[in-house]
Design a protein that fits this description.
Strand content: 15-25%
Order of helices and strands: HHEEHEEHEHHHEEHHHHEE
Number of helices: 11
Strand order of the largest sheet: 3-2-1-4-5-9-6
Mean pLDDT: 94
Distance between the termini: 31 Å
Shape: globular
Number of strands: 9
Bound molecules: S-adenosylmethionine
Length: 248
Amino acid sequence: MSSGQLYDTIGATYTVSRRTDPRIAARIWAALGDARTVVNVGAGTGSYEPSDRDVIGVEPSALMRSQRHAGAAPCLAAVAERLPFEDGSFDAAMAISTVHHWQDPIAGLRELRRVARRVVVFTHDTTSTGWLERFWLIRDYLPEVAGLLDGRPSLTEQARAIGARIEPVLIPWDCVDGFFEAYWRRPEAYLDEQVRRTVSVWTRVGWEAERRAVRSLRDDLASGRWTERNRDLVDLEAAELGLRLLVA
Ligand SMILES: C[S@@+](CC[C@H](N)C(=O)[O-])C[C@H]1O[C@@H](n2cnc3c(N)ncnc32)[C@H](O)[C@@H]1O
């Protein structure tokens, strides 16, 4: 199943917990600089699209496109790997929380580079210890996530493909965009089926791993074991969990 098709299956409740976090948006919009025309690739329901610029979305999933609000930017059905635009059509291209879904991330990133003078990508550094080893949800409950990375290009390879610099993005403790790492200081959120259904990782690891992880987390929260293990997180305002901006 391609990722566009995956979102046609799992995307029905996306907007329940996935929306623009203003602090992350400020970083993305600053990185767009003075770009007036912007293509948002893997646009989904329109999170992070700046309202003060001329935006067009690209999104393969019909279900995701159907959830864009009435005033949202126009959105085409296409994939990152084959963008239906001439070279240099836009001042900037942005791709937010989507590159890990692309069948060929390097080809997609080169397409962004081809159609725009500036590229801004919000993604993970999955090779950093911040992700696999420091995020307690993967380390202590869902090690299967490591298997999802097999054969994927590293962040350094992705950055090199478009000549991008890499900037860390800390995740605020009360992040309002419910992506996988968003609830790092609010572990009870992961017990909520609705929260999990808007994050593809849970579907991709499979139902048995999900059930085991949730049961184990529930037990550890009830017994106080989670709190004991994660005392260092309780007073943190923002966490470094491998989230990155690529800016080219
Ligand atoms: C987690 S959502 C992110 C959506 C939006 N950018 C956001 O920040 O909420 C990932 C999106 O990438 C899209 N996608 C999957 N494969 C793609 C591809 N090859 N090219 C472009 N978008 C793709 C999915 O359909 C989905 O809407």
